[in-house]
User: Fold this.
Amino acid sequence: MSEEFRPRYPGYDVLDRWNSPDWDDPTREVVRRRLEGIPAPRFFTPAELATLEAAVERILPQPDRGPEARVPIVPWIDAKLAEDFRDGFRYEGMPAQRELWRSALVGLDQTAQALYGRQFTAIEDEDRDEVLRQLEQGHPPGEIWASLGSGRFFRDTLCATVVRIYYAHPTAWSETGYSGPSSPRGHIRKWIGGVDPWEPHERPTRWKTE
Assistant:
């Protein structure tokens, strides 16, 4: 296995704490829902789902995992929008979240068409990266982006949502050495770099310099 995908916490699985003093029944129920309650699509159309999946795969790829081991991200975005569960704020000049996401997916196709003559799902990975790069930089071609801030959508909506959903999943907890919610045990070594006796220790990493 390459250094890039070697686990930082070899052998650690946060689910081993299931019956430990670390977790109580409410914690176990929350974790169970995240593992087993993957929501079915209710908001996006199949075409929109395919476009969003293609974008998420470039933002946070999981090449070291098989289909059953991948952290599901798009289903939870769909559920958030189906329930219209909002963040409690809206950036100036941005539409409501349902309109925002649908418009942005149209915009991805418009940009892909302008650059490569095909829809976003039909272009190569490196071309998808370029489409997303132009969104990030704030000047992608496409009619939608004339009235929709692409940089803000890319950074503060798309990327932020993807990262939040990913790191709410126990698989991500295991790879970061996180022991899950600290109820009811709590933590005692709360200073920077402090590791409680029951927490995993990170393996030494040899960083390469160029």
The chain has seven helices and no strands. The longest helix spans residues 97-116.
